[in-house]
Specification:
This protein is an alpha+beta fold. The protein contains six helices and 17 strands. It is globular and about 70 Å long. The N and C termini lie far apart (about 60 Å). The chain binds fe (ii) ion.
């Protein structure tokens, strides 16, 4: 296959390969796919990832806008968010690559790389495969190019003006749209909270059953922001199977396990050396430190509340040592 050679952040796509997939180049990186694998070609070498794992990770990186800190697609390839620009790297957070000076990094404007990733996702996601869905709830990513699934990968994030269900605002999922309760959440109560607003405040006061709301989520590992108070973002999410990325924190991140169980592998952020395993059962709370990377395993669909601090000064303050990487000294 011939691939266009490009410089800077210009985006071009080469001709389709014989399987029907386009290849994509940005900077000195080129991305190609075949039936089973994504090939990431960079000066001097090539990294390879299973296509399903690559698309699931790519979907999160796009949907989360590169998220906080580092999104490791695996132990070699990933992105680091600098909030305006993004580093895309090979081996930057891998002890063996760093030790033998085999890492490779380029910096892009966030909006350019996001657009670039969206193009790959659109072309490489086949009909019937939803990278947001749990493996048991979606078709296969493999094989020659077969249609697309733009509906799944271009989900729009909905934002309430004041509160879900208030007059004139978004309707609660499941009330009007008829989004079904997930197959693994049929035991979740769908009861509505009782409301007793004072006279005159009927259109100001509202409440929803968050468990019922989450039981109808059709995506996994995709936090929804449900409240914003200054820099405090409460982001509940439903999880099943494996977190598709290994997240490297650039600040402390709090987890509240709302239902079922998630097992976390926690590693050193820079080297990937194992630090600990954390098993979180319903009701458990943890503060994931600012200097780790982690990947969660959810054997059943579960509900997790992620509490993020959106203060833009934090990455630098943790990196400089002004703050300890953990929130509490016992
Ligand atoms: Fe994290």
């Amino acid at each position: 296959m011939s691939t266009a050679t490009l410089t800077g952040t210009t985006l071009l796509t080469a001709a389709q390969n014989k399987l029907g997939y386009e290849s994509f180049s940005i900077g000195k990186f080129t991305f190609e796919r075949d039936e089973y694998f994504a090939h990431i070609i960079y000066p001097g070498n090539r990294h390879i990832m299973p296509i399903e794992a690559f698309l699931r990770a790519l979907m999160r990186d796009v949907a989360w806008g590169f998220f906080y800190g580092t999104v490791n697609f695996d132990n070699v390839f990933g992105t680091i968010n600098h909030y305006g620009t993004v580093e895309m790297y090979i081996g930057l957070n891998n002890f063996a690559y760093r030790n033998s000076h085999r890492e490779y990094v380029e910096t892009f404007q966030s909006k350019d790389l996001k657009k670039f990733f969206e193009s790959i996702l659109a072309n490489w996601t086949n009909e019937g495969f939803d990278p947001f869905a749990a493996p048991e709830e979606t078709g296969e990513a493999y094989g020659p190019k077969r249609g697309d699934n733009l509906q799944a990968i271009q989900r729009e994030r909905l934002a309430a003006k004041r509160f879900l269900g208030l007059p004139g605002d978004l309707k609660l999922r499941g009330d009007a749209e008829g989004q079904p309760v997930n197959r693994q959440f049929t035991d979740v109560s769908q009861e509505k909270p009782e409301l007793h607003p004072e006279q005159g405040f009927e259109s100001e006061v509202h409440a929803v059953n968050l468990f019922a709301y989450l039981s109808r989520s059709d995506v996994t590992w995709n936090p929804s922001v449900v409240s914003v108070v200054h820099d405090s973002l409460l982001c509940p999410t439903t999880e099943e199977h494996i977190l598709p990325i290994i997240h490297g924190n650039d600040r402390v991140e709090w987890f509240v396990q709302l239902s079922d169980e998630i097992i976390w592998d926690v590693e050193d952020k820079m080297t990937g050396a194992p630090v600990c395993k954390v098993t979180m059962k319903a009701g458990d709370v943890s503060a994931m430190p600012a200097d780790i990377r982690h990947r969660g395993y959810s054997p059943r669909r579960s509900m997790l509340l992620v509490w993020e601090n959106n203060d833009g000064t934090l990455p630098q303050r943790y990196a400089s040592g002004e703050f300890k990487p953990y929130p509490v000294e016992f």
